[in-house]
Design goal:
The chain is an all-alpha fold. It has 20 helices and no strands. The longest helix is centred in the N-terminal third of the chain and has 41 residues.
C-alpha cells in the first residue's frame, strides 16, 4: 500500500441505516419516480395498442379498397403535418433528437418545454397513431422515447427540491423506459440510455434508469406477456458456411444504413438548394401530400408490402411464410425516407428492422444459405446499428426480440461491422438531428429578438 494512501472505511451499519431512512425528501423523490415510471410504462403500452390497432384498420381498408390509399394517404399526411406545425411543432420527426436536444447543457427550462412535456406526449401519441392509420412507413419506437421522457419529466413538478434528482436524470430514465416498454426489451433500454442518451451528459443516474425500466417494463410484460416480439429463432451450430453470408449481410447493411442515415440528415436539414427542399420549406402541407401520394404508389407497386411499420412482413419472413420481392428493400427504403421527409411525427426503428431483415433474406437466397432466419436477424441488427450508429443497443434489441441468445456473438459482430462502415459514410443520425433542433430554437430566439426591436422602434 502507498504510504500516503488511506484504506477505504466500511460504513457503520446502524448509522448508514439511520441516514438512509431519515432522508424523507429522498424517499418521496424515489416514490414519485416509481409512480411516474409505472405511468410511463402504461402510457407506452396504451400507445402501442393504439398504434397496432390503427395499422390493422388501415390494412382492412386497403384490402377492401386497393385504390383507397391513393386518396387517404396524401390527405392524412397533409393533415398530420398541418396539425403538427400549428399545434405541436416539437412533436415532428422521431422524438429521439428532441430528447437529446433537451439534454444539452445549454437547454433552458423553456427550451425543454418545447421538446418534452405531457402536452407534447399526448400530441405525439395521436399524430403518430394517425400516421400508422394512414399506412405510412413509420415506426412507433422513436416516438415512444419522447412520449415516455415527457411523462417522466413531469415528475419534477411533484419532486421535493432536496430529492437531488435532476431534470437530466428524469429525461434519460424516461427515454430509456420508453424503448424498454415499446420493444419489450429491458436490456435494450439500459443500453440505449448508456449509448445514446448519456453520450453528452455528465450526470448518469443509472440506478434511476434501471428503476424506471424495471417498472415500465413490468407494465409492458403485464399487458403483452413475456414473449419475445418475433418469437424464437432456431439457430444451427455455428459453422464456416455462415461466415461469408454473414459478412455480406453486415457490409451491405453498413453501406445501405449509412446512406439512409445521410439521406435523412440532408433531407431534414432543408438547406439543400434543390426544388424539393425549397418546396418543403415554402409549401410544407402540399409537399407532405406529395410524399403521402408517393408512398401510396410504392405500396401499390409492392402489393401492400411497404405499408406500415414492417413488423408483420418481418414476422412472416422469419416464419418462412413470405416470398419477398427482390425490390422490397429498395421500395421500403424509399417509402420510409419519404414518410419521414414529409415532416410527420414518426420513427424509423421498425422500418429499419424490416429493411435489414429483408436484406438478410435476399442474401440468404443469393448465397443459398439454408437457415435464412439467422441472416434475417443479422440483417435486422446490422441495418439498425448502421442507421443509429448505436451497435450495442441494436444487437441487444434484436437479440431480445428474437430470443436469439445463441446468436449473441454473431449479432454483436454484425452490428459492430455495419456501424463501423456507416461511420465512414454518414454523421451520427440522432445527434445531427438534435443539432438541427437546437439551431431552430436559436433562430426562433433571434427572430423574436428582432421582432421586439422592431416593436420598440417602429
Amino acid at each position: 500500500m502507498h504510504p500516503h494512501s488511506h484504506p477505504q472505511h466500511h460504513p457503520h451499519v446502524p448509522t448508514a441505516f439511520k441516514r438512509e431512512l431519515s432522508d424523507r425528501h429522498m424517499w418521496i423523490g424515489r416514490g414519485v419516480v416509481i409512480v411516474l415510471a409505472a405511468l410511463t410504462g402504461m402510457t407506452v403500452v396504451a400507445f402501442t395498442w393504439l398504434a397496432e390497432h390503427a395499422l390493422a384498420q388501415f390494412f382492412t381498408f386497403q384490402r377492401a379498397y386497393w385504390w383507397g390509399p391513393l386518396l387517404w394517404m396524401p390527405v392524412s399526411t397533409a393533415a398530420i403535418v398541418w396539425l403538427t406545425l400549428r399545434f405541436a411543432p416539437g412533436a415532428a420527426g422521431s422524438g429521439i433528437p428532441q430528447v437529446l436536444a433537451a439534454l444539452e447543457p445549454q437547454a433552458s427550462d423553456g427550451v425543454r418545454q418545447l421538446y418534452v412535456s405531457v402536452k407534447l406526449s399526448a400530441a405525439k401519441i395521436l399524430l403518430t397513431t394517425w400516421g400508422l392509420l394512414a399506412g405510412l412507413s413509420i415506426g412507433r419506437e422513436g416516438p415512444s422515447v419522447q412520449i415516455a421522457a415527457g411523462v417522466m419529466h413531469h415528475a419534477r413538478h411533484w419532486m421535493p427540491k432536496r430529492a437531488h434528482i435532476s431534470d437530466h436524470s428524469l429525461l434519460i430514465a424516461g427515454g430509456a423506459a420508453g424503448i424498454a416498454a415499446a420493444f419489450n426489451t429491458p436490456l435494450g433500454g439500459v443500453m440505449f440510455a448508456i449509448e445514446e442518451l448519456s453520450k453528452k451528459t455528465e450526470q448518469r443516474s443509472y440506478s434511476l434508469v434501471i428503476v424506471a425500466i424495471v417498472v415500465a417494463g413490468l407494465m409492458g410484460v403485464s399487458a403483452y406477456g413475456n414473449a419475445s416480439y418475433f418469437g424464437i429463432i432456431r439457430v444451427e451450430n455455428f459453422g464456416t458456411a455462415l461466415i461469408i453470408p454473414a459478412m455480406l449481410v453486415a457490409m451491405c447493411c453498413g453501406v445501405a444504413g449509412g446512406l439512409f442515415s445521410r439521406l435523412l440528415i440532408v433531407s431534414l436539414s432543408g438547406n439543400s438548394p434543390d426544388w424539393f427542399s425549397k418546396s418543403r420549406r415554402n409549401f410544407p402541407i402540399i409537399f407532405a401530400a406529395g410524399c403521402g401520394l408517393a408512398v401510396a404508389i410504392l405500396g401499390l407497386v409492392s402489393h401492400g408490402d411497404t405499408y406500415g411499420s414492417g413488423y408483420a412482413h418481418n414476422r412472416a419472413m422469419l416464419e418462412n411464410s413470405n416470398d419477398t420481392s427482390s425490390l422490397y428493400v429498395l421500395l421500403k427504403f424509399v417509402a420510409t425516407w419519404l414518410s419521414t421527409w414529409a415532416g410527420i411525427p414518426a420513427g424509423v426503428f421498425a422500418p429499419s428492422l424490416a429493411i435489414g431483415g429483408a436484406l438478410g433474406n435476399d442474401i440468404a437466397q443469393l448465397t443459398s444459405y439454408a437457415n435464412a432466419p439467422t441472416l434475417i436477424a443479422l440483417g435486422m441488427a446490422g441495418f439498425l446499428a448502421a442507421v443509429t450508429q448505436a451497435p450495442l443497443t441494436a444487437f441487444i434489441i434484436v437479440m431480445e426480440m428474437v430470443d436469439g441468445h445463441a446468436l449473441v456473438l454473431s449479432l454483436m459482430a454484425s452490428a459492430m461491422l455495419a456501424s463501423g462502415i456507416s461511420r465512414l459514410i454518414s454523421a451520427p443520425l440522432y445527434p445531427s438531428l438534435a443539432e438541427l433542433q437546437l439551431l431552430r430554437i436559436k433562430k426562433m430566439a433571434e427572430d423574436e429578438g428582432n421582432a421586439a426591436v422592431v416593436r420598440r422602434h417602429p
